[in-house]
Description:
It is a single chain. By secondary structure, this protein is an alpha/beta fold. The protein folds into two domains: 13-155 and 328-403, FAD/NAD(P)-binding domain (3-Layer(bba) Sandwich), CATH 3.50.50; 173-325, FAD/NAD(P)-binding domain (3-Layer(bba) Sandwich), CATH 3.50.50.100. The protein contains 13 helices and 25 strands. The strands form seven sheets. A nine-stranded mixed β-sheet has the order 1-8-7-6-3-2-9-21-20. Strand 23 and strand 24 form a beta hairpin. Helix 2 (37-45) packs parallel to helix 11 and helix 5 (173-190) runs antiparallel to helix 6 (197-203).
Amino acid sequence: MPTLRNGKSTATESSAANGHTKHASDKEQLVILGSGWAGYAVMQKVDRSRYHVTMISPVEYFVFTPLLSGAAVGTNDFNSVVEPEYHQAYARKVDFKRKTIECSPAIGSEIRKQELNRRIDDDSDDAIKPAVSYPGQKLYTIDYDKLIIAVGCGTATFGIEGAEAHSFMLKTADDAQKIRTRILECFEIASQPTLTAKERRDILHFAVVGGGPTGVEFAGELHDFLTGDLEKAYPSLRPLAQMYAESVAHKTDWRLTLPFYSTIYDVAPGVLQGFDKSLSEFAAEKFKRQGVAIKCESHITRVCEDHLEIEEEGDVPFGMLVWNTGLAANPFIDSIKDLKKDEKTHVLRITNRLNVMTEKDEVYGDVFCLGDCSALEKKAPPTGQTASQQAEWLAKNLNALVHGSAPPKPFKFRNHGNMTYLGDFTAIIDRSSDVEGPEGSLTGKTAWLLWRSAYLYKSLSFRNQVSLVYHWLCTWIAGRRVSRF
């Protein structure tokens, strides 16, 4: 019988036997699809005394995504950026007329996971019937009174061959763990005495595709890890690192002497295109001084196991590639045929009260969509800031509905500015375009302190706030751990 992680049953014995879950509670059944910024925040703020909340997600935690870059290099612990949630499953189909959701468990053996994770729009019998039966792996349906779709988006690869197969994304805690492991593997390989100088340079080249806030922040954290911790942990490579300053002074090709280096590639003319131009230029100059190369207007044509094929440069070897480009519609959203979608992004179009609608503009009053998988008529950036504001508004609206109080005014996004980390205790904060409150910008260590304070404040539990402070202090005093675990 499917159960929630808080130990409460989601069904009676008779309904579970038929693969159908229905609560006997008098509360309204609120089902949330997705455990990201939007869905998790609604679950926290909705009145649980009036709603029976079921959260459905294939991963068993909420991820505080802005801190994933730090987790990937050991600045903070992986457990400091996740919060547990309740119902680990894949949502397969939604029947909006019957108000039911078809689900399949997201637990079990890896073979079974792959079997259940086939394309959800595949109507063949093989797509839903396993070749081997496993206990607790049957399909089942869940009823809802109100439904929140907050499944987020994937990372766009723009059809570039090999991008998905040979690069690391940075969307989940598992991704951050894999990145950390690969960084350490590269250093172990580079330390082997059998490598030539060129092979060592190639394996210690860390490429980042995408010059937006996520890519830039990861490049900053990676720089701190490489120069502040790994250089000390691998003393055999240190003499080569010291040659970097001399190569810069003599204007030689620093890549020929630096034992490890990073490069940010982007098709745009500069990094951080959403920021004020002066801040974008500040970030570029800061990275240049740190030894992080920025290659803008680069057109990647193919990604191979150990090198990029770039139109402007040819083959560029790497030891690790992290891909942080635009957003791609979630396959679950692709599978929904009877709702209106945005023509450009293919996510669900929503009203200013966050309701979904049909192609004929008929509104489903009990179905809401928010976060990256939604598109308002008046566009809002697909960021955690937008998702958090939508979640706060929707929780107020849902609470007003069950309490009989006046609903809030239609949702309106309020831009509070952008911020990102550049490495070496330096950040930038941009409040120069369409922001609520006074405009302005800030750079340097003061901006870094505000950046850290904002992320600490936004952490969704006191436990994680304490954990973050502890690990930040440990990193500052004793450095990052360089073990693989």
